[in-house]
Automatic annotation (TrEMBL):
GO BP term, pick one: isopentenyl diphosphate biosynthetic process, mevalonate pathway
Gene field: mvaD
Species annotation: Dyella choica
NCBIfam families: mevDPdecarb
Pfam families given in the database record: MDD_C, MVD-like_N
GO CC annotation: cytosol
Keyword DNA repair assigned: no
Ranges where the Mvd1 C-terminal domain occurs: 177-302
Domain Diphosphomevalonate decarboxylase-like N-terminal: 7-163
SUPFAM superfamilies hit by this protein: GHMP Kinase, C-terminal domain (SSF55060), Ribosomal protein S5 domain 2-like (SSF54211)
Enzyme Commission identifier(s): 4.1.1.33
Protein's UniProt name: diphosphomevalonate decarboxylase
Amino acid sequence: MRAASQAQPNIALVKYWGKRDAALNLPVVGSLSITLESLWTRTDVRFVPGQQGDRVSLNGRSDEAEAKRISKCLDLLRACAGVDYGAEVASRNNFPTAAGLASSASGFAALVHAGARALGLELSLAEQSVLARRCSGSAARSIFGGYVEWAHGKLADGTDSVARPLLDAEAWPLRVAVAITSTAAKQVGSTEGMRRTAETSPYQSAWIETQEADLGVARDAIRARDFDALARISEYSCLKMHALALAAQPGLLYWNGATVECMHRVRALRQQGVPVFFTVDAGPQLKAVCAPSAIEQVKAALRDVPGVLEVLDTGLGEGARAIALDWVEA
């Protein structure tokens, strides 16, 4: 009753922000993302008959808040299997946790994938996506690789709010340079940020009303491998999401000075003809998406920005998958 899985974080190009049902993690809008390759979460899950409660280790340490979220996720799997066994969970990230790099997405996708296998559950990827979404909204997308769309759905039970793959990573192999401007956990988590925004931002209704059009533009750009069109819609969606959050009361400011300077640097590169665009989630890290031929120039430009601590380089990757047990601590 043991299994290990790996999942990668995903970066939304057309953003997810806001929930229509907090209990089920149902989004108010659909979203579209790319799954990364070099950043990963590896999770080992072992169910122990007769054990009371779960024991959780995250990056080699206990984390009470995360342990509660993990146990709630495991409860969904236990309900599917009809068991009440406690579990031993060891999970490790090779990138900063809770710092705007979608560690919850990769973490809960890996947890659902490994937990289902450990319990012998034969769940489709769509069913795993639904379960992952209930644990962390964007985890629905990390079940899949490459280019992924997560539908907001219309049903009250959320069964139609599921992610689906749009295009394999190999079919359009873009690169991503991630400018790390802080390794600290963000002061306002995404769940609280979304709640505050929905309740107080005057731009919430406009955000919802315009999202379907944005998704259509992004889908068309991906199908056509149209980099310029994808660049325009991705930066537009990013800035629109942050404008929405900035207008909350009190306003949510997830950027720092280096984040803003990185945006200017990316736009300057594009004006020089370099195929690159930026996106930023609920955190201070900037992701610069570019053509493979431009990755070294983009990394050099971002490293030169004061306040950038490190620049990670990744391609687009696979969805959640099984790994050897000894890989978790490797």
